[in-house]
Structures are given as structure tokens and as C-alpha cells.
Amino acid sequence: MTNVGIIVGSLREGSFTKKIAQSVASFLPSDYNVSIIDINLDLYNEDLDQPGKVPASWENFRAQMNDVDAVIFATPEYNRSIPGGLKNAIDVGSRPMGSSVWDMKPALVLSVSPGAIGGFGANMALRQSLVFLNMPVVQQPEAYIGGVTNILDADGEVTEQRELSYFKSIADAFVDLINKNNK
Ligand code: FNR
């Protein structure tokens, strides 16, 4: 069983980014176990990262991420970078030193925006951290999903065949990376 965790960089109830992540994930093999991991966590503070002081939200997040074999990062772009909540989750998961939940786990980056540039700045900023965290990342497709409000229909679903084919190619590249990593 392959457990895939989806980390959505937006906390917004009606997040477009979450919708796109779910649509891409729908093309993963049916025997994959896919779940969205909550990143509404206490802010990282090294003073709290010691026995007896660790916030429950960090403990839950780290425990869930330890059960995950591969990660989909789906992020909006905030001010040409990733949202603070996503960076915080990355930081929480990276500590304590030597117990990172990210190390060597295959990752997929999706950046999503209503704008034309498709969250390029967020996509690149996220990849910079993933290099340091030692995660093998899908390089192609780079997966900039721009004009998202034109892609989602009135019910908030992706239905256009052109987009669905693109999303399937993204999911296929992720599965290839996971399989290579398991060899
Ligand atoms: C944005 N937005 C935005 N969009 C973009 O393409 N580039 C950017 O740099 C920014 N910056 C930015 C900063 C902040 C603080 C907010 C709240 C928003 C717009 C953003 O793409 C839009 O709100 C998306 O709908 C957010 O994604 P979700 O919540 O729909 O997943």
C-alpha cells in the first residue's frame, strides 16, 4: 500500500488549490491511499520543541506524516512565494534534527493561481526547500496551474478533457518517480 499525503498550502474553505490537488490525485492508482493532511499548526518555535512542551498540533502532524510514503504539495502563491502556513508545516516536519518527516520521500509540486503565471514564484520557492529536505521531486511537468477560475466549473470541478489529460500526465509522472524510488 502506498500512502500519499496531500499538503494544501491554502487554509481557505473553498480553496481552488485543494480542488486542483484532488483532481490530480484522482488519477493515482486505485490501490493508493490518499489523504489531505491538516497544516493549521501552531507556529514553529524551537523553545517548544522539547519533551513536555511540544504542541499537540505538531505531534499529530508529525505522526500523520511519518505514515506517508510520498507527498503532493499543492500551493497557492502569496506575494510571489508560498503561504506562511505551508512554510510553517515544512519547518515543523523538518525537526527535531535527524527525525525529519520529509527525508527521501518522493514529492509532487503543484502551484495554482487565478493569474496567468500559475504561481511560478511559489513553485520555485517550494522547490528550493525540497532540495534542502532531500526529497526527490517530479521535475516535469513543472505543474504551474494558471487561470484556475477558468478551469473549475460552476460546481468547482474540473471537467474539461484538455485539463484532465494534463492532470493525468502529472499524476503519471509522480507514480513513475514513486516506483523508481521503491526500486
Ligand atoms: C494572493 N494571491 C496571489 N496570486 C498570485 O498569483 N500571486 C501572488 O503573489 C499572490 N499574492 C497573494 C497574497 C495574499 C496574501 C493572498 C491572500 C492572495 C491571490 C491568490 O492566488 C488567490 O487568492 C487564490 O485563490 C488563493 O488560493 P486558494 O485559497 O483559492 O487555494
From TrEMBL:
**What sequence ranges are listed for the domain NADPH-dependent FMN reductase-like?**
3-147
**Which molecular function terms from Gene Ontology are attached?**
FMN binding; oxidoreductase activity
Tell me a GO cellular component: cytosol
Species annotation: Lentilactobacillus senioris DSM 24302 = JCM 17472
What is a single Pfam family found in this protein's UniProt entry?
FMN_red
Return the InterPro entries for the record.
Flavoprotein-like_sf (IPR029039), FMN_Rdtase-like_dom (IPR005025), NAD(P)H-dep_reductase (IPR050712)
**Name assigned to this protein:** Flavoprotein
Superkingdom: Bacteria
